[in-house]
Design brief:
Number of helices: 31
Helix content: 55-70%
Protein name: DUF590-domain-containing protein
Shape: globular
Largest sheet: 4 strands, antiparallel
Pfam family, one: Anoctamin_N
Distance between the termini: 99 Å
Subcellular location: Membrane
GO molecular function: chloride channel activity
Keywords: Membrane, Transmembrane, Transmembrane helix
Length: 826
């Protein structure tokens, strides 16, 4: 039996949890513990009273084994839910029973309204066209974990630490069954002429998902589907240039960057159209306070007259600036860690040539996989706490701050090695690696240098020019595979293994187990078992999924010219990503709390920023590494320099040479031979090496100028593309017209509510003070003869007094006579 519960509140019955009795400490004295127990009982009784006062049906059962919790089940009455839905309706007239019969309240809408009742402050402000924020009492129950971690916060229910809506097993089973197959069985897909519709999720499925899980989850899958479809163009373009053997080609880079620009701007319009269809367009205008926000007190809004929580933006800004030292500390630590791993990888992979090299080359990968995610996870926890401490009044502001913090560190972790290879290792590797060897202790230097090549012992180091390509392939393939395992495989194993481990760790006596079984009624066993399993599942906020897609998008846009096939792998990966994310949400996490969303939020700006940075990196990489035709000079030394730097020369000299601008700069001169002992490596570069170093610096400077010029062109192109797409795809569209219609209905609803919806003539009559005139006096004002300066009382109306006007206005209108005489003959 499924009792159709709306929400489950998790209440801890552990007296020592979170909040001991004030002034009594954490001692184990019997009197102190008894007072703590009394505190928990009183808190639970007050919680139930608050829930029942809000017209909610309440009951409770024991929680999962070993958790010391009570599960409080909450269900709102149908009358209260319909009242809340009517309050939010922008229609001039309230929804009637027949309206609910024709358009019933969706499951996600119901859960969102009940969540609003549970979490809205008890002195909430107005968030809609109606005069109040709720049709009845609200509970004001933000869980303790959502509150800013400051000593000043007084938590009314400190033992209430979680709440979640139960899953709908029937819908989840049907959802996964439909999405596991290609959606080509859908009638809307089979009738489509677009072949891409056979591979993506149709809009009807997204609408159904929105009705059950809310706009946030549905908007994510709408974005992922749109992104998947958009990858077809860069995949075809990259395949063509790969078959032609033309990496780093300017047209390839222009295609990737141009595609990223059009993708971001077209999705901006696409999400607006979806928001209009789902009724969330311009949702930010009526955004309510964030659950967990706590002000310094109450104040009256001078504009609306509504009581609200008082909080100054300066305090949020000050707290945000105070978190910068923590951010720079993590960025410095992560940058040092990535650089250290990179140096180890270079020395082991490029310098060392001794026994066990095959296994030693795996050490940097193991270090990166084990240490970097730990730092990122620690920063994720710290960033959440810092963002809670900032105490943002709106959920959109909270998510924007958390997104910036998260992506700023992920940028270093994801792209740090590739940036080091592109702009440090390949340009300066022949100078830096010998210098690093000199700084190592003699024993470690001996272990590395005894088996190195003669080139290194003679004072130079031959860089691995293919390392950049190898790294990008490795990151594009292995990172997404390991990410899929961490997202789906690992949570699946935890869900299967963790409950059994907890049951063994917190096992009780056989008699106690029998009592626990007896407490559950026979018709409730299956339901309570499922709820207790969901209690131990993690919460999925659809945040890490956007971060994963942003990282993948960055690999493609920032470094796609290195490996033209990278979009194809992203295309294949995202086909399975859509299904795996659906499986994860349905089975490996709690049901997401429905939230109304009009867009993908701050992640849209992240994608736009990545596209902008892609214009910088793509243009500079093409300038540095694009193969160019060069012809053999007359000096044999020049040929020798080229051959020493891994530039393949034709034996017969019948075809032109191919090199890059960076290779040409590195070939300006060769480092001289070193007389230093072998264990010490090479001596500092001689005067001839400085010529090559200066040439490399000049080449990198020109690459920076090219990148800046590309960014300038990108900015202008983005403005033009946004304007053009808005004109072509948005203006005059059905979504645009529907949004304008809804805005008109919203204005009319507000006018009706204040009894101000009157004709313009009546509005002017009231504004001029004629509203209280008798019908006989009002009838005299139909013509010019009725306007009197004395009656109106405004000097500006003197022009309407015909009798007092000059004769110029009384004479014949010659223009009318001339118009009548046109075309007539004498």
């Amino acid at each position: 039996m499924d009792p159709a519960v709306d929400f489950v509140l998790v209440f801890s019955v552990d007296p020592d949890y979170n909040s001991p009795v004030r002034g009594l400490g954490h001692g184990q004295d019997q009197a102190v513990r008894a007072k703590r127990v009394d505190q928990v009982r009183d808190e639970f009784s007050r919680l139930v009273a608050v829930l029942q006062a809000a017209d909610l049906t309440v009951t409770s059962r024991r929680g999962a084994k070993g958790t010391s919790t009570v599960l409080v089940f909450v269900k709102a009455s149908e009358k209260r839910v319909r009242e809340e839905a009517t309050r939010e309706s922008p229609k001039p007239s309230p929804r009637e029973p027949r309206d609910f019969a024709a358009a019933p309240i969706e499951e996600s809408e119901r859960l969102r309204l009940v969540y609003s009742i549970l979490t809205s402050p008890r002195t909430a402000g107005s968030t809609s066209v109606r005069s109040s924020a709720s049709t009845g009492l609200t509970c004001g129950l933000p869980v303790a974990s959502l509150l800013p971690p400051t000593p000043a916060n007084k938590v009314e229910f400190p033992h209430l630490y979680d709440m979640f809506p139960p899953h709908n097993p029937a819908y989840n089973k049907l959802w996964l069954r439909r999405w596991a197959k290609l959606p080509s069985n859908s009638p809307s897909v089979t009738s489509s002429k677009n072949p891409l519709d056979l591979l993506t999720i149709p809009q009807s499925e997204l609408d159904d998902l929105k009705a059950h899980l809310g706009e946030r989850v549905a908007m994510y899958f709408a974005f992922l589907t749109y992104y998947f479809r958009s990858l077809v163009f860069p995949s075809a373009l990259g395949l063509f240039f790969w078959l032609m053997g033309l990496p780093y080609h300017p047209l390839l880079g222009l295609g990737f960057v141009g595609w990223s620009l059009i993708f971001v701007e077209s999705w901006r319009l696409r999400e607006n159209a979806i928001a209009v269809q789902w009724g969330t367009y311009h949702l930010d205008r009526v955004e309510a306070d964030r659950p967990g926000f706590q002000g310094d007190g109450l104040e009256v809004d001078p504009v609306t007259g509504v009581t609200r929580q008082k909080w100054r933006f300066q305090r949020t800004l000050t707290r945000g600036l105070a978190s910068l030292p923590a951010y720079f500390t993590f960025v410095g630590a992560l940058g040092a860690l990535v650089s250290g791993i990179y140096i180890v990888e270079t020395l082991v992979g490029e310098v060392y040539d001794g026994p066990g090299k095959r296994f030693l080359t795996l050490v940097p990968t193991v270090l990166f996989v084990t240490l970097v995610p730990q730092v990122s996870a620690l920063w994720g926890f710290t960033a959440t706490k810092l963002t809670n401490f900032e105490n943002h009044p709106r959920q959109s502001e909270y998510e924007a701050s958390l997104t910036v913090k998260t992506f700023a560190l992920n940028f270093v972790a994801a792209y740090g090695n590739l940036l080091l290879t592109s702009y440090v290792y390949i340009p300066f590797g022949s100078f830096l690696v010998p210098h690093i060897l000199q700084r190592l202790p003699s024993r470690q230097a001996a272990a590395l240098s005894t088996s190195t090549s003669k080139t290194l012992q003679s004072g130079s180091f031959s860089i691995n020019a293919s390392k950049l390509h190898t790294q990008l392939v490795a990151y594009s393939l292995t990172n997404q595979i390991t990410g899929a395992f961490l997202e789906v495989g690992l949570p699946y194993l935890k869900a299967k293994v963790l409950p059994k481990v907890q049951e063994k760790m917190h096992s009780s006596t056989v008699q106690g187990k029998l009592r626990e079984v007896e407490n559950d009624h026979e018709d409730e066993k299956d339901f309570l078992k499922r709820i207790r399993e969901e209690q131990q599942l993690p919460t999925n906020y659809i945040f890490s999924e956007y971060a994963e897609m942003a990282t993948q998008f960055g690999y493609l846009v920032l470094f796609g010219v290195i490996w033209p096939l990278s979009p194809i792998w992203s295309l294949v990966n995202n086909f399975f990503e859509i299904r795996s994310d659906a499986f994860k949400i349905a089975t490996q996490a709690r049901r997401p709390i429905p939230n109304r969303e009009a867009s993908i939020g701050p992640w849209l700006e992240v994608f736009g920023f990545v596209s902008y940075v892609g214009a910088l990196t793509t243009s500079s990489l093409i300038y540095l590494y694009q193969p160019r035709e060069t012809f053999r000079g007359t000096a044999a030394q020049y040929v020798a320099n080229l051959t020493a730097h891994n530039v393949t020369l034709p034996a017969d000299g019948s075809v032109p040479y191919w090199t890059t601008r960076l290779s040409a700069a590195q070939s300006a001169s060769l480092p001289p031979a070193s007389d230093a002992p072998e264990l010490l490596g090479a001596l500092p570069p001689a005067h001839g090496s400085f010529l090559a170093l200066d040439a490399i610096k000049r080449t990198l400077l020109f690459a920076a100028v090219v990148a800046l010029a590309s960014s300038h062109l990108y900015t202008h192109a983005r403005t033009g593309v946004r304007w053009l797409l808005t004109r072509l795809a948005w203006d005059g569209s059905i979504a645009h017209q529907l949004s304008k219609r809804r805005e008109l209905e919203l204005k009319r609803a507000w006018l009706d509510e204040h009894e101000m919806r009157i004709p313009p003539k009546e509005m002017a009559r009231r504004a001029l003070g004629w509203a209280k005139q008798s019908p006989e006096e009002e009838g005299k004002r139909e013509g010019h003869e009725g306007y009197k300066v004395a009656e109106v009382g405004a000097p500006a109306d003197a022009a309407a007094d015909v009798e007092g006007l000059p004769d110029f206005w009384k004479r014949e209108d010659e223009g009318k006579r001339l118009m009548e005489s046109l075309g007539k003959t004498d």
